[in-house]
Amino acid sequence: MWPWGHAAFGYLLYSFGARLFGRTPNGYPVIVLGIATQLPDLVDKTLSWVFELFPQGYSVAHSVFVAVPLGIIVLALAVWRRRAEYGLAFLVGYWSHVVGDVVFGLLSGNPYTFARVLWPVVTLPPYSTDLSGLARVQAYVISFINFFADEGLIAVVVLLAVYFGPVLFAFIVWLVDGAPGVAELRRLTTPNG
């Protein structure tokens, strides 16, 4: 999944979960959620693409052997500090990322779908190309552009609907929820805020 797909999936789960309890998401926990939805890739892609410590961008932070205990520990600490909503936001964000990668792998027919989340029991084989972090991102962008150039209009529309439809839906839900997190981010980034 792309970063915005992880953010959308995590937000939809969090928002619908909050609604089950008669609430809507609020500010700072939504910021925690947003960061947590990106955390596995920020850690693992950096360890692989930049520092070359792992052969692929799925290792420590994507592992259920790390994600499950870490989520429980963060939630327990948040409950202990009387900030359960922060712990829940972290847990939903982090776990939705791992689950999203598995579901996306299943839908796309990836042969390493479950292996992605089983480090250190399973270590994935190296990428078929040896690219640095920036070169890898450029290769993704070029392949995306080539797809647009090579395929017909219907295939492009379907791809855009599949990739960006859920993101658009999540954005609409976020707006309906009152755009939680915007005022808090403004407060955090404004001097003397």
Quick recap:
Helices cover 69% and strands 0% of the residues. The protein has 193 residues and is mainly α. It has one domain (3-189).
- Taking Cα atoms only, what radius of gyration do you get, to the nearest Å? 18 Å
| Average predicted confidence as pLDDT | 90
Order of helices and strands: HHHHHHH
Determine the strand fraction and express it as a percent band. Answer: under 5%
Q: Which parts are unreliable, with pLDDT below 50 for 5 consecutive residues or more?
A: none
Number of separate strands: 0
Could you describe the 3D structure shown?
- With about 190 residues, this protein is an all-alpha fold.
- It has one domain (about 5-190).
- The protein has 7 helices and no strands.
- It has helices spanning about 5-20, 25-50, 65-80, 85-110, 135-150, 155-175, 180-190.
- The chain is globular and about 50 Å long.
- The relative contact order is 0.16.
List keywords for this structure.
193 residues; mainly alpha; 7 helices; 0% strand
What's the SSE blueprint?
Layout: H1 3-20, H2 27-50, H3 64-80, H4 84-108, H5 133-150, H6 153-176, H7 182-189
